[in-house]
TrEMBL record:
Annotated Gene3D superfamilies: 3.30.1380.10
Highest taxon, organism lineage: Eukaryota
Keyword Metal-binding assigned: yes
UniProt keyword annotations, A-Z: Cell wall biogenesis/degradation, Dipeptidase, Hydrolase, Metal-binding, Metalloprotease, Protease, Zinc
Protein name: D-Ala-D-Ala dipeptidase
GO molecular function terms listed in the Swiss-Prot or TrEMBL record: dipeptidase activity; metal ion binding; metallopeptidase activity
Keyword Protease appears in the UniProt entry: yes
Gene Ontology biological process terms in this record: cell wall organization; proteolysis
Species of origin: Spumella elongata
Annotated CDD domains: D-Ala-D-Ala_dipeptidase_VanX
Length: 215
């Protein structure tokens, strides 16, 4: 029997599409194109969920980006709120040294996958508090989606993804700087080891970790 009960997010959380449907979404953890190689626990739908304040801030970032580029560029969001069940899934995956099917694409420098616990995989994540977001910039209206060169793909677990990596092109450096600038302007804090990751400084749930599923 199908469960027809309406699904309601906890108070303070929203679907990003309800706040700004123009922001593109590519929910990697709901599919197979991620470092685990399968849908991650807790991601039951290809939807971006975040705290309301973050969604409103992203709406302003998007508006500024669109205005300043004459509509040529747009945000593309990969992840925001992340259930604790997903974080737990990452921990179990990183402990399984036999599962290396996504190594070449996502962590090519690590022969021992358990070393990902040193800076890449953690048992707690700011995403679980609902006010962190992983995103990039893309060319609007492109199909397939044309993401600006950033020197590494989203979620590449490698020093190439560090913001200050010297081994990327000047174009990629400029694109990373653009993304960082527009996010800083709206109250987000960057993470130096992941060019795509930002945390909203005035997050509403700084000490709470959630685990409701994304549906």
């Amino acid at each position: 029997m199908t469960d027809t009960t309406p699904y309601h997010l906890p108070e303070g959380f929203v679907y990003l599409a309800d706040i700004d449907g123009s922001i593109l979404q590519e929910v990697r953890y709901a599919g197979y194109n991620n470092f685990v190689g399968c849908p991650v626990d807790g991601y039951e739908a290809e939807k971006i969920v975040t705290t309301a304040v973050v969604a409103e801030a992203l709406k302003v970032v998007q508006a500024d980006l669109v205005k300043n580029t004459g509509g040529r560029l747009t945000l593309v969001v990969y992840d925001a709120y992340r259930p604790q069940t997903a974080v737990d899934h990452f921990v179990v995956w990183a402990s399984d040294t036999n599962d290396t099917k996504m190594k070449d694409q996502y962590y090519p420098q690590f022969e021992d996958k358990t070393l990902l616990f040193n800076g890449y995989i953690a048992k707690k994540s700011s995403h679980t508090r609902g006010s962190a977001v992983d995103l990039s910039i893309a060319v609007a209206g492109t199909n397939p989606l044309e993401v600006l060169p950033m020197g590494s793909d989203f979620d590449l677990l490698d020093p190439m993804s560090w913001y200050s990596c010297p081994d990327i092109s000047e174009t990629a450096k400029q694109n990373r700087a653009l993304l960082r600038e527009i996010m800083l302007n709206q109250g987000f804090e960057p993470y130096d080891k992941e060019w795509w990751h930002f945390r909203y400084i005035e997050e509403p749930f700084p000490d709470q970790y959630f685990s409701f599923p994304i549906r």
